Amino acid sequence: MSLPKTAAAKGAPRSRAPVRLAAKPPAKTGNGGSTEAKRLAAEIEAALAAGQRDALSTEALQALMAAVCKTYAARVEAGEELLPLPQRGGATATDVMITASGLLKAANLAVFELGMWQSWTGR
After folding, report:
1. Where are the domains of the chain?
2. Which of 34, 39, 73, 81 has the fewest C-beta atoms under 10 angstroms from its C-beta?
3. pTM above 0.90, yes or no
4. CB 51 within 8 A of CB 19
């Protein structure tokens, strides 16, 4: 697998100044969490496009990852049939494999255990 070429990989200048994510209070609408999450996702994507891998602290990244994992699992456990990413988009195959490997390692699980769980649950 090869990673898609980005502007940064093509030699575009990278800013050394850290990107500051705007601290905005959550929206007060009925589904404000989704609005705020989409806004944050767009800011993170923009920071990545600018070559800033450290737009989130390690602690913030871990907190977001845990919350998203729990939310996705709760929805699937409740019977929703949804994918965590849009089909053929949102992240590269390499991004997904790196993240899946990291999640398994963080939970002290092996790929074998994932395969066994999938066969038991049909997921």
Report:
1. 30-82, 88-123
2. 81
3. no
4. no
